[in-house]
Amino acid sequence: MNLEDELRTALRRRDPSPDFAARVLARVQAEPVRRASGAWRRWVAAVAACLMLTVGAAGGYRYYEGQRAKAQVMLAMRIAAGKLNKAHKKVQMLNHRSNS
Amino acid sequence: MPERAAPGAAEMEFAALVRQHQAMVFSVAWQFLRDRALAEELAQDVFLSLHQHLATLESPAHVLHWLRRVAVNRALDVARRRQRRPMVSLQDAPEPVAVNSTGDPMLGSALRRLVAALPEKARMIVILRYQEDLDPTEIAGILGIPVGTVKSQLQRALTLLREKLSRRLGEISL
Question: Does the model's ipTM exceed the 0.90 cut?
Answer without folding.
Answer: no
